[in-house]
Amino acid sequence: MHANGDVVCSIIDGRGDFVLGNVHESSLPAILAGSRAQTLRELVLSTPDQYCRAVGKTCALKTLAVPAGDDIATTLRFLAIEPTTTCDLRCLSCPVRDIAGDTSWRDAYRDGGPAFLAWDGLRRAKQHAADAVQALVPASWIPPVHERSRVMALLLRGRIPAARRGTLPIEVLKRVVSEAGPGIERVDLFNYGEPFLYPRLVEALRHVRQQMPCAIIALSTDGQHVRETTEVDIVDGRLADCLVFSVDGCDETSYQRYRIGGTFAGAFANLRRCVTRARGTAVKVVWQYVVFSWNDSDAQLRRAIEMARELDVPIWFDFAHTWGRSRRHPDELRYLAPYLRPFTALPGESRREGW
Question: Which stretches of the chain drop beneath a pLDDT of 50?
Answer without folding.
Answer: none
